Amino acid sequence: MYLNTRLLDMDARGSWLFYVAYTLLIVGSFVSSLAVGFTGINAVYALAVVLALPRLFSVRASHVAILITLFAIPALCACFLLARDPMIVVFAILLLAAKDLEFDSIVKHSLYIVSGMLALSLAFALLGVIPDTVLVRELHGRFVECHSLGFYHYSKVPTYWFYLYLSYSYLNRNTYSLLKHVLWLLGGLVIYLICFERLRFYLLIVAFIIFAIAGMMKNKHLGRSWRCASAAIYPTLFILSVVVAMAYTPTSGFFEEINTLLSGRLRLENIALNQFGISILGQSVEMNNSLGLTDSSQYMFVDAAYIYIPIVYGVIIGVALLLIYTLSILKAAKNDCLVLVLAFVCIAIDCLVGNQLLSIWLCPLPFYLTCSAAEDAGRVSSVSKLDKLGIALGNPLLK
């Protein structure tokens, strides 16, 4: 049963408000990651929320949705005040504002704007307009120069390239081209040889392989085993990450091998858990991931989303995020969208070394939950009206 919460008369034509808000979020978030000293990101967040809010008053909501919202609002407010990070509020508002919109259009919007801005920023970095910070570090027994290419950290370009590849693969799921995917992989190789972000490049290779396999499995029905695996992957990796990070000891050869494989991330995760602990509603945590530190011991940043989010945003928000991504991948599996399922799998693995769960400007796939939910509601509504028409006319073909 649905309640009429349409306080504003805004149909699909009102989608321009969402796209303006989403564009602001993409541009603002991208610019804030550049080494240009941009400090207006909170103002961008506020403006994006103000623009997207009217769409929340133009949708029908079920009783369950309203109850969830009533419980979620205090948790979001508490997390915002305690963690002092508005990103969780922006994520929630835009995710809900995307209801009734076309999912593919949102993914295209993100792909085109981010890729265009990435190309422009790389050109500025090569021309010297934006500073290219270089960090020298040891990799595979030799010292390498990691170029930031105009961003405040050398991992940004490889991360953006990887997530753009996921969006591209989804949008071209029905027309797989090995040549184009190879070009994406070669582009990732060039970026790796400049930035030397090892783990992100390895994950790009994994994504390339599984998308190639998916390209040979078109129109495959995803059975119960796929759905069970889809429902389990995010909670399983989350529990595994927390347990391993808490159990880490530098004297253990096994754990030290994992720490080396993760480029020292496991040690930092263990320090963060011991120093800050996992909060309920979030907490403000000062971390330092700046390049060019004279003392490497000053570096303190948790990359893994499975550890960072429960520490900073709290258990309640962390569980909610895992639920959103789990429901999204489960929905994709039920709709037999193999490429989208695999893209969500790549994100789940990436959360072991990265933290992009809230970055819907770069990773628009969570919108699938609200957009596809609207499509399902539309199909149910259409069938219901058709049944009523069939009964009225006495035509069994319309029932």
TrEMBL record:
Residue ranges crossing the lipid bilayer per the database entry: 20-53, 65-98, 110-131, 151-171, 178-194, 200-217, 229-248, 305-325, 337-362
Signal peptide: none
Record has Nucleotidyltransferase as a keyword: no
Keywords for this protein: Membrane, Transmembrane, Transmembrane helix
Top-level lineage group: Bacteria
Keyword Transmembrane helix: yes
Entry protein name: Polymerase
Lineage: Bacteria, Bacillati, Actinomycetota, Coriobacteriia, Coriobacteriales
